[in-house]
Amino acid sequence: MPEISQPAPDFTLPVTGGGEVTLSALQGAPVVLFFYPRDDTPGCTKESVGFSEHLDAFEAAGAKVFGISRDSMAKHDKFAAKHDLTVPLLSDSEGSVTEDYGVWVEKNMYGKKSMGIERATYLIAADGTIAQIWRKVKVPGHVEEVLDAVRAL
């Protein structure tokens, strides 16, 4: 699992709207990666809508923002259209990025254990190193907290 001040693991993933995003190509600007369990679930929808609503503020602060889950591009596109999301979503359908970032974890819900994505956010500084990590994110107030951290860079 990467830690603060370490280089962020590089990746290339498909993005909603077509094309691909390569993390290392974004160096020179801060990048926010928010990992979420699944498209169109209540918490994931609130978080994605929150980042979409604040996307202009993140861009004004010079940052790029991306949501990442293991859902397919078809599910991402449907999710984005249904909720008018403006934040780009990346599909990690093979799971390598969620594993590289240490967010693919064993979960225990109602006594049933399963593997899934732990809601987490990584703030990557312009030099490509990890500036801040939020684990086990609670959605209320999170987007504003991340925006404050971007502005403090």
UniProtKB/TrEMBL annotation:
Alphabetized Gene3D superfamilies for the sequence: Glutaredoxin
CDD domains: PRX_BCP (cd03017)
A Pfam family of this chain: AhpC-TSA
Top enzyme class: oxidoreductase
Keywords: Antioxidant, Disulfide bond, Oxidoreductase, Peroxidase, Redox-active center
Coiled-coil intervals, chain numbering: none
Catalytic site positions: 44
GO molecular function: thioredoxin peroxidase activity
Entry's Gene Ontology cellular component terms: cytoplasm
Gene Ontology biological process: cell redox homeostasis; cellular response to oxidative stress
Functional description taken from the UniProt entry: Thiol-specific peroxidase that catalyzes the reduction of hydrogen peroxide and organic hydroperoxides to water and alcohols, respectively. Plays a role in cell protection against oxidative stress by detoxifying peroxides and as sensor of hydrogen peroxide-mediated signaling events.
Oligomer and partners: Monomer.
Family of this protein: Belongs to the peroxiredoxin family. BCP/PrxQ subfamily.
Protein name: thioredoxin-dependent peroxiredoxin
